[in-house]
Design a protein that fits this description.
By secondary structure, the protein is α+β, with helices and mostly antiparallel strands. The chain has two domains: 36 residues, no CATH class; 137 residues, Alpha-Beta Complex (Nucleoside Triphosphate Pyrophosphohydrolase), CATH 3.90.79. The longest helix has 14 residues. It is elongated.
């Protein structure tokens, strides 16, 4: 039976710089030198996402955003989030994105976990957080190409809709899994 171990990078060079990510060819070899080859990697900045919770008289609601996604060519309902700037703490990045995209601020932000978006060829990390006791603080401050509708979605509805037509973003599903573990869901 094979026992996978880390490979050694022999050389690496950038193939394409696509502004928000770079494509790189990495020549790698097994430690015993029995296998080698080129591997194509996407170097992208880390991302952070957050589940903002608002406690209402009707129960817990999530602050979610609805926006068009160019990759799928469809509208997507998601939790707020975005790119972690170089040397920025992911918790600060996600607090910034929450405020910019929704106008909401949180009393407390807690880490839920980290994920590799696609470890087969992507080198970045996704950081998931929860924002407890959120409140509306200001207007949205959207980037030039952003058009975002802010939604307050009941917790149970968001859980039930994951995987539905507008609720198919894989990282949002993973963040919701972390949230359910945080809340102690067992069914």
């Amino acid at each position: 039976m094979n026992n996978p171990e880390s490979w050694i990078e022999k050389s690496s060079h950038e193939i394409a710089n696509c502004r928000i990510f770079q494509v790189r060819e990495s020549i790698r070899e097994t430690r015993d030198h029995s296998k080698s080859g080129p591997f194509y990697l996407i170097d992208a900045p880390d991302w952070a996402g957050i589940i903002p919770v608002v406690d209402t008289s009707e129960g817990r609601k999530f602050v979610m955003i609805r926006q068009y996604r160019h990759g799928t060519g469809k509208v997507s309902v998601e939790f707020p989030g975005g790119i972690v700037d170089p040397n920025e703490d992911p918790s600060m990045a996600v607090a910034r994105e929450l405020l910019e995209e929704t106008g909401y601020r949180a009393e407390m932000i807690l880490p839920l976990g980290d994920l590799s978006p696609n470890p087969a060829f992507m080198t970045n990390t996704f950081h998931a957080f929860i924002a407890e006791s959120c409140y509306l603080d200001s207007c949205q401050k959207l980037d030039v190409h952003e058009e975002i509708e802010v939604l307050l979605v009941p917790e149970r509805d968001a859980i039930d809709m994951i995987g539905g037509e507008e609720y198919g973003h894989a990282l949002m599903t993973a963040t919701l899994f972390f949230y359910m573990r945080y809340r102690g869901y067992s069914d």
